[in-house]
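so my prof wants the structure for this chain in the tokens format not the other one, which i didnt know existed until like an hour ago. anyway here's the sequence
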Amino acid sequence: MREHGLVSSAGGLGTHDHACWPFDDDQSFQRAAVEFLADGRRLNQRLMYVGGGPVEKLRADLEPLDDLDGLIDRGALEVLPLSEIYPVGDELDPNAQVAVYDAATEGALAQGYAGLRVVSEVTALVADPDSRTAYTRWESAADRYAASHPVSGLCGYDRRVLPDEFVADVAALHPTVRQTGTLVPFRLFAWPDGLVLEGEVDYFSTPALERLLTLTVVDGRELVLDLSVLGFIDHHGMLALEAHRNRLSRQGVDLKIQGAPGWVRRMCDVLGVATL
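here's what i got, hopefully its the right format
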């Protein structure tokens, strides 16, 4: 399974890992970006740094990265404004955005790299509240792509600008999340054949689970949800999963749950739900 859980360092993440990095000061995010990109260099991944502001400012963020000028000159690192990668000002289409990163990943492989490693500081992209639903759906699609392709990402969100609920929602769609004051009780992330629910789901976090289930990308006629690393779920969470199973069924999609601990199965028997 991919690296998952709460972390305090951006180092040590692998080829398919996808981390959410909420931050309260620019310097802490810049340190994480440099650490993450340095690991990608050691893994022979092609590097990309995307953010708001002019390229000169973005390049200055990476000054601590060894051989910065050489990496850029050789094409091993691209430093790009958000508008070069994302449709700034227009609604984001998750499928179109996946195509953008797929082309970049395939290009990196064709040039002999082991894959692509991207740092994206996307706060400016989601400053408008109307853009956040589509962007949240994109994070789900991006994670599914990363689970089965040689691309890893570090996504930065400025907590000084963005509301806690939104940051918590997008964080929950990443397998790996920086440990901060933002409560992220569970993570709903991708693996090659479906989704994994990890962490704890109770009365208070069930509304977030319900929101994110409706925004996760479903391909095909079957969705597998793995509960093998789930720490806790109460009856509110299980009823939310049952409601989602029924919703998908009406769309012609079969939700299959696997890896559920025995205590979850017993709870389903008591509740009389057919989710498992």
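also thought this was worth mentioning. The chain has two domains: 1-184, 186-276.
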